[in-house]
Amino acid sequence: MRVGWILLLAIAGVLYLYNPGPRAFEAYLQSQTSEQLHRELGSSPVGRAFAERSAALSLALTYKGIHRDNYYLWSIYTVDPDGPDGEQDYWRFLGIGGRFFMITQPLR
């Protein structure tokens, strides 16, 4: 029984230490945007340059639409570019263990 508690506390401690912060989420978001643009624009030098600049610009434009709910062992990030208007036109990501997973995407 005691070993179980120690193991549980060790796992909680690791999750707490690796709970990704806002800067990690921004880097993840920029990377994902850049990858998507690379796929759509191709691998030409012009396409690559445009994809990299557009990813940085899109992150800057959506920066105010990013909200973090910190639960200490994990975080939920909501990206809602047009603000909280009651519509489900936002993305949600789970940040846990230093990684991000999309859990909600806009209904279209």
Mean pLDDT: 87
User: Looking at the structure, what is the overall shape?
Assistant: elongated
Provide the structure class.
Answer: alpha+beta
- Main sheet overview: 4 strands, antiparallel
Give the uncertain stretches in residue-range form.
Answer: none
**Total separate domains:** 1
Q: How many helices does DSSP assign?
A: 3
- Share of β-strand residues: 15-25%
Helix content class:
40-55%
Q: Please trace the helix and strand order, writing H or E for each element.
A: HHHEEEE
Number of DSSP strand runs: 4
Please state how the strands of the largest beta sheet are arranged side by side.
1-2-3-4
If you compute it from the alpha carbons, what radius of gyration comes out, rounded to the nearest whole angstrom?
17 Å
Terminal residue distance: 49 Å
Question: Your description of this structure?
Answer:
The chain is of the alpha+beta class and 108 residues long. The protein has one domain (2-104). It is built from 3 helices and 4 strands; from the N terminus they run H-H-H-E-E-E-E. Strands 1-2-3-4 form a 4-stranded antiparallel β-sheet, with helices on one face. Strand 3 and strand 4 (99-104) form a beta hairpin. Helix 2 (22-41) runs antiparallel to helix 3. The longest helix has 20 residues, at 22-41. The radius of gyration is 17 Å and the shape is elongated.
Annotation keywords:
single chain; 108 residues; alpha+beta; four-stranded antiparallel sheet; 50% helix; elongated
Short description:
It contains three helices and four strands, in the order αααββββ.
